[in-house]
Amino acid sequence: MQEFLVEITTTIPDGTSQDEVDRRRAAEAVRARELAAIGHLARLWRPVGELRSVGVWCAADEAELHEKVLGTLPLSPWMSFTVTPLESHPNDPGR
């Protein structure tokens, strides 16, 4: 699988009830655990105080990443994605 750096910005639509936000966030947590368990979500961070996240995601290619991984997130209709394909660096200490 190929690795991708994915920046995700979430924008909750005006007028969305707190119940809907809470429901989707709970479903998002469940789906993130599922994607991690099957190897699609490697790491995920949130910059302090922001509705944005940065993560390392894995998929066969960028099409699969969008269609079968990121597109399955319950919050995806409210998200925008910036995807950067990654490759190994020769000085990576984790190699």
Put the structure in a nutshell.
This protein is α+β, with helices and mostly antiparallel strands and 95 residues long. Helix content is 29%, strand content 31%.
Overall description:
The protein has helices at 18-37, 62-69, and strands spanning 2-10, 41-45, 52-59, 79-85. The chain is elongated and about 50 Å long. By secondary structure, it is an alpha+beta fold.
What is the fold's blueprint, element by element?
Blueprint: E1 2-10, H1 18-37, E2 41-45, E3 52-59, H2 62-69, E4 79-85
Antiparallel strand pairs: 1-3, 1-4, 2-3
Properties at a glance:
95 residues, alpha+beta, four-stranded antiparallel β-sheet, 2 helices, 4 strands, 29% helix
In total, how many beta strands?
4
Biggest sheet record: 4 strands, antiparallel
**What's the helix-strand series?**
EHEEHE
Q: What is the share of helical residues?
A: 25-40%
Number of helices: 2
Poorly predicted residue ranges: none
What is the rounded Rg?
Answer: 14 Å
Described by the principal axes of the CA atoms, the overall outline is elongated
